[in-house]
Design brief:
Blueprint (H helix, E strand, L loop, with lengths): L3 E5 L3 H12 L3 E5 L7 H4 L9 E2 L7 E3 L4 H6 L4 H10 L4 E4 L3 E4 L4 H14 L3 E3 L4 E9 L2 E8 L2 E5 L1 E4 L14 H8 L4 E7 L3 E3 L11 E10 L2 E12 L3 E3 L1 H15 L4 E6 L6 H14 L5 H4 L6 H10 L13 H12 L1 E8 L7 E6 L17 E3 L6 E3 L4 H23 L1
Parallel strand pairs: 1-2, 1-11, 2-7, 11-20
Antiparallel strand pairs: 3-6, 4-21, 5-6, 8-9, 9-10, 12-19, 13-16, 13-18, 14-15, 14-17, 15-16, 17-18
The structure holds flavin-adenine dinucleotide.
The site of flavin-adenine dinucleotide (FAD) has 40 residues, from α1, α2, α6 and α12.
Amino acid sequence: MKKKVIIIGGGASGLTAAIWAARSGSSVTVIEHTSRVGKKLLSTGNGRCNLTNSRMDSDCFFCSEPDFPMEVIRQFGWKDTLRWFSSMGILCRSRMETYYYPMSDQASSVLEVLCLECERLGVEIRTNCTTEKIHREGKKGQPLFTLATDQGKLSGEALILACGSKAAPNTGSDGSGYDLARAMGHGIIKPLPALVQLRCQGSHYKSLGGIRTEARLSLYINGELVRQEAGELQLTDYGISGIPVFQLSRFAARALDERKRVQVQIDFLPFMDREESRVFLKKRTEEFSSRNMGDLLLGVLHKKLALVLLKAGGISPELPAGQLTQGQRERLLRLLKEYEALVSSANPFANAQVASGGVDVSQVNPQTMESRLVPGLYFAGEILDVDGICGGYNLQWAWATGRIAGTQAAQRGKKH
Ligand SMILES: Cc1cc2nc3c(=O)[nH]c(=O)nc-3n(C[C@H](O)[C@H](O)[C@H](O)COP(=O)(O)OP(=O)(O)OC[C@H]3O[C@@H](n4cnc5c(N)ncnc54)[C@H](O)[C@@H]3O)c2cc1C
């Protein structure tokens, strides 16, 4: 008789686990508590699904156990992901050299193909199904999980928790997986929003909403430089957003949660160092000495942003540039190169792409994704205390963990 693998969560990692468990000969049931599987997958990469990245290093993932993510990724890397999708008919192409997307540019095509493969393999998918309780019995080598759900009981020799995190709860990823893991004895590192916008103090952001500009950002926590990122900064009416902000946000959110002071220093002239910027500003005031200060940076900086910086420096926009004092010029230089944004909070989970924190990986075997506490219990995807930077890393994590958990859960069933 076929061994039975139950998977809770029909997202990227759960569907991957289902496919690999079924390919390994198990009978598989996926329990999804929303009306359809893969909702979050549909919104990835702005609907285009950035499904992996060919730059796959340890600095692309964060975890309380820093070696854990790459121990997993080494078993199923980006080339394996491309090969696997290609075998199911999804051809991929790279953008910006290392970021991979399906050639269709449609996240929906990735989800459809995963669903077709599940169907081909006879995976049972139960939607609108809520797990009320998990009961584990059986001897050490022969566990048996019995789930009480609102659609009746079901049992299996292996159970995979692939419930996602708390990020983007409208997609079904509502944190209920943490409760299931906790009920099985697992520790949870406090989940916090990551890859998310940062809210900053100051009413002037209201006039900056919608501005995009290249910038270099330096994150300071309690006055100490923690991390730097560069790229397109998006100013919003409440603070800062854009890829470089997302990359910093996991550190900012955790520091704020620990009641630390969080500042982002913004360099609005990232193409010049400080001395070059000083020379540039001096030359500019000489060259356009009859222009008003409000017009001095036209063509260099968004006009609204320039006006906000002038106001912060106490410089009248009506002042002729030729009359700018050295002290005023130094103040403006400082605002252009080291603008201080004091962060008051990270946006909530509703706006976050992923969560930092999750199931404590010290209780999970990276070779098998099996719990070290509960034999027969496996984990896959974002439910774990691993988060990746922007660029296809979180989905790579979902594919890799799904592949390992699915295969191992099926093999465990076979061995006993
Ligand atoms: C807007 C947005 C864009 C993104 N873009 C990218 C991108 O381009 N590239 C990238 O790598 N990553 C991206 N991500 C992150 C990526 O989507 C996630 O990391 C990935 O989907 C996680 O997969 P998962 O299977 O662990 O969780 P999910 O995809 O969240 O799936 C979890 C599933 O489990 C279900 N579930 C939860 N609890 C239960 C329960 N108790 N019982 C039954 N079912 C349950 C949920 O309804 C859901 O269907 C993006 C995320 C968002 C929100």
